[in-house]
Each structure stands twice: as structure tokens, then as C-alpha cells.
Backbone:
């Protein structure tokens, strides 16, 4: 059968209605209650003129309203569009216009004011739904354009019934992803492909994928009552995929407004958290710092696993977590907005990230030919199977990222590079766009960053190229140290890295900053780091 995400959620809600689905800021909603709230939001959106196929931008931080907006949209076959609330005005306007959004759901006063200044340049927007009180600037700007301003609170007067039209596995979900250059791109997922790939066919912890809604419902009823903390913002792909995954399992999602390592550590005991989702070292480093500070004060006994996705999670950070709780299961997911979860990395004794053989992942050369296992040739990691339709309104980038072989097989090639061993294991080297060419030798930034993060004085680090007259480019490290750490020298850093890295990979320049700049989701800001390294 073809799966629709709204149908999947409703099947789980019917199967485990009294189980807690969502906990946020001390408030908990059962699956039955969350489903009812989402139904009310769906009816509110319909009343605001939003029809099947319409795109709705969610200009929201983490909240219950954010979750019910996602669910309410897909219930009426509308298309939710994630909005990075840290974007500049020009980037926000691009999202609203490029996505063809006819409505925006917004909350914070500063976000409302930003939206007010952009409405004149967004001709398709006809409704703005406001969580909380609308600010005067937004009301005035909407009036000039005859845009309807709808209080989100009006959803309380709407019906909680599930009287929606039939849905399809072909319904669309658009997930905008920010790159290191240019404007964000809208990844177009069919609901059925979304379920089968990012949600692992409803069974992320097993091999057998769910065949129909009855199996989804039955599996949710049998799944243990577990608590998963999503510490990342829902406008980030890893958090969104996790939200739907945990809902599909019938688990309890604990949602934080913002990532706060102190609150995360306190929540382990307070909420009996069993699994925590982070985004690489950007969240992992401050989290393990806080875990070390609170060791002996906080009861970590409920915590079973820490899972990361969407960014590099270094061995050094993981070893520190295991030193606190040796029985932790650490899962480093490999994936992207354009592919969903591709599986979990393992780490070998040399610190290399390795992906076990999979029929859905191969290594190809620039001509899309598969590279023979056991060679030393470096190629592109390609995903096969349930891949997105492409990028919304961008045929050129779609053709480049989602090429089709002569035999009709569609691939997703995102620039991740690696080599394939005799048994089919793929060794991950890094993102090609962050590859540094120094004297003809290729250096992947992620590999050097992982080595730097293992240094006890380094709180965070990014690695970028810097021009070099003789070598073309040199490896430059932008680092932040812990407040109580002794001053580091470039020589000390080089000696540390030389223990695990080849000589040509050693940083030749170092810039110390107060804090390494990352996105709200914890991802690296390489444009900023390059600017810092050039000063």
C-alpha cells in the first residue's frame, strides 16, 4: 500500500490513545488529545482558506503549536514548509516566495515584525495565522494587502472530529535545507517515500518494514513506553524526521523550546529520558560538558541511548559520554534532508566512520558508474531507492543531485565522499564541498575536526581552506577553547593532530575565537569560519 503520514499518525493514535505522545514545558498530551488538537488546527486552516496542495510556511520555534500545525496541515493535504527562524530578511522572503506559500503560521513578536516587512514582496500569501497576540506592525501590513490575520487560538472553537477527505501516498512534504552557499532548497518528498526512507518503513530498529496501517498500529501497541528527547529545532530535518519516527512508534516525544544543555541533563532524571537526539558536536560538546559537571548530582540511570544526526559527532565527545555512563548506546546516524536516515556509522580503531554494506547505498564515480569494492578510488556516496522527487522549482539542481542512470534507476548524490572496501563497507571521508586541496592532496574538513575535538582544551572547532602561495590551499583551524583551559599554540595543536592524521592534513594556521558559530540546529557555519580564518 501507499502510506500517508497523516494516516499513519491517526492509526497510531487509535491504537494507543491513552499513551502520552508529547511533553513540552511541563505539559503532556496523550495521542488522543494531540490528535484532537491537530484536528482543530486542520479545521482552522481550512476555514482560513487553505486547500489541499497549498503550501503553508511554519515560522515557528519548538512548541505544541508547531507540532499541531505540522499535523493539521498534512491532515487536510496541505504542504507544511519549515522556516529557519534565524534567516536574514532576504532569506526569509526567498523561502516564502520560492515555496509558493499561501499562508504563514508565526508566533514570536520579532518574527511577526520581520514578516510584516516582507508581505509586500510575497504576493501569494493570503492568510497569516498568529500564535499569541498579533503585533500592530503585522496587522497594519496585512490590512494593506487585504491579508486575513487569524488568531491560532480560534482553533479551540473548531471541531475535533476527523472529517477529512481521503489522502494519498503522493501527497507532498517540502523540507527546506540550507546549504553552505546560495539560498535554501526545498526537498520534495512524497509521503510514501518519506515513510519508507526517513521513517525506515515504520521500523527503525528492525529489518522488516511495515506493510500496512494495521501493522503500524499493532507495532505501536507492542512498542515499549519510551521517552525520546528532541533537543534540536523542528525546522531542522533531523528533528522533523525524528518527530515522525517516534510518533510512528507510539513513543513519548519530549520537546524543548531551545537547546539548553542544563535543561537536557536535568530532564534525564525529571522526565526519565531514555533516548536523546542531538545534532553532532555542536550539541554534543556542551551536553557532555554539562553531564560531567552534574555527574553524581543527576540520576542518569534511565538514559539508554544518545543519537546524533546531521553533523559530525567526534570520537572524543563520544568517549567522554561513555566515561560517564559506559552502557550508553551511541548511535551516529548518517543522512540528510535529501535522503533521510541512511543507517548508523561505526567507528574503527583509527577513528574512521564506516557504513556497513547496504543495497540502498553505493559508491559511484563522476559518470555514475559503481566503483569496484576493494579499490582505493575515492567516489561519491549515492543513495538508491525511495529518494525525493527533487528540489522544488529547481530543475538544474534536481538533475545534479538526483540523477537518473541509463537503466532508469534514480540516485541521490549529495557530495559525501568515501571509498568502498572489499566487503562493501563504505568508509566516509567527508563532504566534497568542504574538501581542501593542499599541494594536490585532498583533506576532508570533518576528519581534521574530529581530531581537534579530541583535544581536552578545545570546546569546538571548524576546519576550512586558506590560500597558500606554494600549496594552493592550506588547512586552517578555527577553534574555541574552554574558559579554564591553558592557552594553546599552533605547535601544540599540530603535535596533537599528528598522532592520528597524516602530515599533509595537519593545520598550518589557527585562529582562536570566543565561540564557534553554528546554526540553531548545531550545524557548521563554514562561511563564517572561512571569513575568520582569512583575518
Residues:
Amino acid at each position: 500500500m501507499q502510506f500517508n503520514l497523516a494516516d499513519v499518525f491517526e492509526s497510531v493514535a487509535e491504537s494507543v490513545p491513552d499513551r502520552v505522545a508529547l511533553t513540552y514545558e511541563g505539559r503532556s498530551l496523550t495521542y488522543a488529545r494531540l490528535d484532537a488538537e491537530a484536528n482543530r488546527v486542520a479545521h482552522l486552516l481550512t476555514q482560513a482558506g487553505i486547500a489541499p496542495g497549498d503550501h503553508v510556511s511554519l515560522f515557528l520555534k519548538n512548541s505544541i503549536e508547531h507540532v499541531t500545525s505540522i499535523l493539521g496541515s498534512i491532515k487536510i493535504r496541505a504542504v507544511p514548509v519549515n522556516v529557519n527562524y534565524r534567516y536574514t530578511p532576504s532569506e526569509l522572503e526567498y523561502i516564502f516566495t520560492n515555496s509558493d506559500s499561501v499562508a504563514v503560521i508565526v508566533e514570536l513578536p520579532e518574527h511577526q515584525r520581520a514578516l510584516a516587512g516582507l508581505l509586500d514582496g510575497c504576493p501569494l500569501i493570503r492568510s497569516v495565522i498568529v500564535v499569541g497576540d498579533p503585533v500592530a506592525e503585522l496587522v497594519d501590513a496585512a490590512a494593506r494587502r487585504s491579508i486575513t490575520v487569524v488568531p491560532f487560538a480560534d482553533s479551540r472553537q473548531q471541531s475535533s472530529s476527523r472529517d477529512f477527505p481521503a489522502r494519498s501516498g503522493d501527497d507532498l512534504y517540502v523540507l527546506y535545507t540550507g546549504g553552505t552557499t546560495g539560498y535554501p532548497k526545498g526537498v520534495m518528498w512524497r509521503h510514501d517515500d518519506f515513510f519508507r526512507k526517513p521513517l525506515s518503513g515504520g521500523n527503525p530498529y528492525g529489518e522488516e518494514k511495515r506493510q500496512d496501517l494495521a501493522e503500524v498500529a499493532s507495532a505501536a501497541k507492542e512498542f515499549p513506553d519510551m521517552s525520546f528527547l528532541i533537543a534540536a529545532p523542528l525546522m531542522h530535518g533531523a528533528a522533523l524526521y525524528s518527530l515522525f519516527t517516534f510518533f510512528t512508534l507510539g513513543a513519548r516525544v519530549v520537546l524543548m523550546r531551545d537547546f539548553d544543555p542544563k535543561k537536557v541533563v536535568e530532564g534525564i532524571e525529571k522526565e526519565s529520558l531514555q533516548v536523546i537526539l542531538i545534532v553532532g558536536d555542536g550539541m554534543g560538546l556542551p551536553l557532555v560538558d554539562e553531564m560531567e559537571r552534574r555527574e553524581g548530582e543527576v540520576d542518569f540511570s534511565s538514559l539508554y541511548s544518545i543519537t546524533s544526526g546531521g553533523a559530525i559527532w567526534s570520537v572524543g565527545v563520544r568517549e567522554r559520554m561513555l566515561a560517564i555512563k559506559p552502557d550508553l548506546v551511541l548511535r551516529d546516524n548518517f543522512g540528510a534532508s535529501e535522503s533521510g536516515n541512511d543507517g548508523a556509522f561505526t567507528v574503527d580503531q583509527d577513528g574512521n566512520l564506516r557504513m556497513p554494506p547496504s543495497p540502498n547505498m553505493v559508491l559511484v564515480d563522476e559518470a555514475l558508474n559503481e566503483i569496484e569494492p576493494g579499490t582505493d578510488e575515492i567516489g561519491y556516496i549515492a543513495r538508491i531507492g525511495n529518494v525525493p522527487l527533487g528540489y522544488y522549482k529547481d530543475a538544474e539542481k534536481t538533475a545534479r543531485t538526483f540523477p537518473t542512470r541509463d537503466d532508469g534507476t534514480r540516485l541521490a548524490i549529495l557530495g559525501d565522499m568515501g571509498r568502498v572496501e572489499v566487503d562493501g563497507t563504505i568508509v566516509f571521508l567527508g563532504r566534497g564541498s568542504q574538501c581542501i586541496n593542499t599541494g594536490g592532496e585532498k583533506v576532508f574538513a570533518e576528519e581534521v575536526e574530529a581530531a581537534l575535538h579530541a583535544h581536552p582544551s578545545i570546546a569546538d572547532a571548524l576546519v576550512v581552506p586558506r590560500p597558500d602561495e606554494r600549496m594552493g590551499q592550506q588547512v586552517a583551524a578555527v577553534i574555541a577553547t574552554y574558559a579554564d583551559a591553558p592557552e594553546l599554540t599552533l605547535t601544540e595543536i599540530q603535535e596533537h593532530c599528528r598522532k592520528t592524521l597524516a602530515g599533509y592534513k595537519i593545520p598550518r594556521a589557527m585562529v582562536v575565537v570566543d565561540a564557534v558559530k553554528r546554526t540553531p540546529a548545531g550545524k557548521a557555519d563554514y562561511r563564517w569560519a572561512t571569513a575568520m580564518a582569512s583575518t
Summary: Residues 348-433 form a domain with the Luciferase; domain 3 fold (CATH 2.30.38.10). The first strand starts at residue 20 and ends at 24. Residues 31-47 form the longest helix (17 residues).
